[in-house]
UniProtKB/TrEMBL annotation:
Residues 25-132 form the Pirin N-terminal domain. Keywords: Iron, Metal-binding. The lineage of its organism: Bacteria, Pseudomonadati, Bacteroidota, Flavobacteriia, Flavobacteriales. Signal peptide: none annotated. This is Pirin family protein. It comes from Flavobacterium bomense.
Length: 250
């Protein structure tokens, strides 16, 4: 659902709402994936991207299974583990495991190969894989990973990604900022956008939220533009949300 009426003070009117049950869905047995935007066999011309946000995949990988070695180029790739341990190998020589609280970013640039596997034989892996169009093409491939304190997102928005290597979280080749917040019921926060002209895509990880006049439930997403700030209110206990501020122009 898209709404682009003239803006009214206190009411968000420039937004596109993606309910969780309208996402693309693929079940390969070992992998179950929900696609907010067109991906693989899910192709929807009305859901190609939100600005430079190209892919938002919500993946579940069975025990001991995973993605074999495959290539990428000229894309910023972010992985956010939600549950379990994800083992990563790449052609840059990185071998590592990421888990909840870790954030991983890769600049594919001129080209990389990587693989991702569920490290454990006794539990699922759940993670988000996000692709962002870069603001520079054919850069030297690079890998970035950090471990953040989960307590720093309780009733606040913890920055997990930015364009700046000196800032908190990982960094990418794009004027984008990501934050995660985990809120008590009825807690409210305001997010002010960092760069004029950017939009923001909010994705609910757990619970229920209201952003302005928009009600959101678990795994709903909403893209908002033509605003300088948004107010977020948790409508359930331990509600968790991912905010992705991105340029709107490719």
């Amino acid at each position: 659902m898209e709404n682009t009426d003239k803006n009214t003070e206190g009411v968000l009117t420039h937004f596109v709402l993606h309910k969780g049950n309208t996402r693309g869905h693929a079940n390969h047995g070992w992998l179950e994936s929900y696609h907010t935007f067109s991906f693989a066999n899910y192709q929807n011309p009305e859901r190609m991207n939100f600005g430079v946000l190209r892919v938002l995949n919500d993946d579940r990988v069975n025990q001991g299974m995973g993605f074999g070695k495959h290539p990428h180029d000229n894309m910023e790739i972010i992985s956010i583990p939600l549950e379990g341990d994800l083992e990563h190998h790449d052609s840059m020589g990185n071998t590592t495991v990421i888990k909840e609280g870790d954030i991983q970013a890769m600049s594919a640039g001129t080209g990389i190969f990587h693989s991702e596997y569920n490290k454990n034989k006794d539990q699922l892996v759940k993670f988000l894989q996000i692709w962002i169009y870069p603001n520079k093409k054919n850069v030297t491939p690079r890998y970035d990973q950090v471990t953040l304190d989960l307590n720093d997102r309780h009733n606040k928005l913890q920055q997990i990604l930015s364009p700046n290597p000196e800032d908190e979280g990982v960094w990418i080749h794009q004027d984008a900022w990501f934050h995660i917040g985990k809120f008590d019921e009825n807690f409210a926060a305001t997010y002010a956008l960092k760069k004029p002209g950017n939009g923001i895509y909010a994705f609910v990880l757990k619970g229920d939220f209201a952003i302005g006049n928009i009600a959101l439930n678990e795994r709903d997403g909403v893209g908002i533009w033509d605003t300088n700030a948004i107010k977020i209110t948790a409508n359930s206990a331990s509600a968790e949300i991912l905010l992705m501020e991105v340029p709107m122009q490719l």
